[in-house]
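S1.2 Input.
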Amino acid sequence: MKIEEEAVHEFLGQSHLAVVGASNNPKNLGNTIYRELRDHEYQVVPVNPKAVLVEGDQCYSDVTSIPDAIDGVVVIVGGGKSVDVVRACVQRGIKYVWLFKGVGGPGSVSDEAVELCREHGIHVVAGACPLMFLEPVGWFHRAHRAVRHLNGSLAKAS
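S1.3 Output.
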């Protein structure tokens, strides 16, 4: 699946995001992405049914329990669970979803989740890591983005 940089920039243009799969474990990617988005001054809400707080912030058990408006959701759970998150996004009227995929494995991407996004007019970034695009981009994520350009899985913005 090809990632369009325009879709990435549109997603990252939203200000109030939820991170499903946020964690207190600093070695967990959900924690890293949550912290980085917060450090980049996004209004970020952690979502994890097994946590009360993440990085000292109130955590919610699912997307539907967040009381505030949410512009977009970063999904960092297995592909089998991501479709349920997308269903919750549909229910909330959320129009931007990022299905995380790092190096190796499908990550949060599933055909069913992507199709559900498309059926409901949700702008979806399916198959990349947001850290490849948060400026300033660290060397590892810059290299990962360059490899994606070379292998054709990331289309440059027009």
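S1.4 Remarks. The first strand starts at residue 3 and ends at 4.
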